[in-house]
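Example 369, ligand nicotinamide-adenine-dinucleotide.
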Amino acid sequence: MLVAVLKEAASRDHRVSLTPDAVTKLVKAKVEVVVQGGAGEAAGFPDAAYVSAGARIASDAVAACKGAQVVLKVQPPTDAEAGLCDSGAVLISLLRPGSHAAIAKRLAERKVSTLALELVPRITRAQSMDVLSSQSTVAGYKAVLIGASELGKFLPMLTTAAGNIQPARVFVIGAGVSGLMAIATARRLGGVVSAFDVRPAAREQVLSLGATFVAAASVSASAEAAGGYARAQTDEERAATLAALAAHIKDVDLVVTTANIPGKPAPKLITADMVKTMRPGAVIVDLAAENGGNCELTKANETVRVHGITILGPVDLPATVPFHASQMFSRNVLTLLQHLINKEGALVVDPKDEITGAMLVTHEGSVLK
Ligand code: NAD
C-alpha cells in the first residue's frame, strides 16, 4: 500500500500531516510512504528526515499522488489537489464540514473516499485520532502567549528592587480542551486565573487546575448535550450568565474566550457594553473568532482596538506552532491509519464501522454528508 503526504498549499499553514516518526512505524508495517518534497520543511521536518525514516521524496504533488491509495493533508484539498487523487483512493484531511459541498462533489465524481478529520467521533476509543482535541490544545496554549505579549503587563507577581508587581488577572471563558490548556498555561506564567463554563464537569476541571470558578449559578446539569458538548443556553440563562460575567470582567487584564456550540454560531458572551467597562490596556483573545466570536466586537483574523482594549480574533493558531501541532496531528492520523489497515495489511473503508462511518463524507461516487 502506498500513502502520499502532500505539502500544504495554504501558505500560512506550516504544519504537515505525517511526521518522520510515523513514517518509521508505517514502513515497519510494510506500508510505502511518499512525501512531496518540502512538505515538512516549515514544521522542522526536512526531506532528509523522511528519507531516513524510509520514505521516498516526490518532486511535486502530481508525482506524490500517482498510484497512492491514501492521500494525507492537513487543510481541505484545493480543487487541483482533489483532481490528483486516483479513483478509489482515500483522502484523509480536514474538510470544514458545513462549507465543503463543492469539494465533496468533486471528490465523489472522482470516486475518492474522503474521511473528514473533524468528524472523528468523540468516543474513548477514537480519542487518540481526535485532531480537534490535539489542535485545540495547541490553540489554547498559543492564545495565552499572544495575549500575554499584547498585554502591557507582566503575568507573574514580581518582587524586585524596583518595586513589587501585582500578578495579572486572566479570565478564561469556555473550559473545554482549549480553555483548560489556556488555564494551565496562564497559571504556569504566574497569572491569577479564573474561568467559566456552563458544564458541571468543566467546573471540577477548572478547580483542579488551581483556577477559581466564576458565575457558578449559571452552571446546570442540563447544559451538557450529547458527546460532552454544551447546548445553547435559553434567553433567560444567557441573561443571567451575561450579568455574572459583566460583574467579573471589569477587573481582569487578559480574557481568553473559547466557548463554542457544535453546529451553531459561537455564543456572544462579551457585549460591546462590557468591553467599555474593562480595565484600560486589557486584552481579549477570542478563539471562537472563526465561528463569529464570543465577543460582539471580534473580527476574525484581525486586531480591533476600542476604548483602550485590544481584541484579537486569531484563526488557525495551531498552524503557528507547527512542530508540535504536526507531531500531534500526525499521531492522530497514524492511529486512524492503523484502525483502517486490517491484519493482512489491506486498507478497509467500512461505512458500517463506528469510526470510519462517522468520518466518511464521500464514498463510491456519492456524497454521504
Ligand atoms: P467546544 O470547542 O465545542 O466548546 C468549548 C467549550 O465551550 C466547552 O467546554 C463548552 O462547554 C463551552 N461553552 C459552550 N457554551 C458556553 C457558554 N455559553 N458559556 C461558557 N462556556 C460555554 O468543546 P471541546 O473543547 O471540543 O470539547 C468539550 C468537551 O467534550 C470536553 O471537555 C470533553 O469532555 C469532551 N471531549 C471528549 C472527547 C472524546 O471522548 N474523544 C474528545 C474531546 C472532547
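Summary: Residues 122-124, 126-127, 130, 132-133, 136, 173-177, 179, 196-199, 202, 228-230, 233, 258-262, 267, 269 surround nicotinamide-adenine-dinucleotide (CB under 6 Å).
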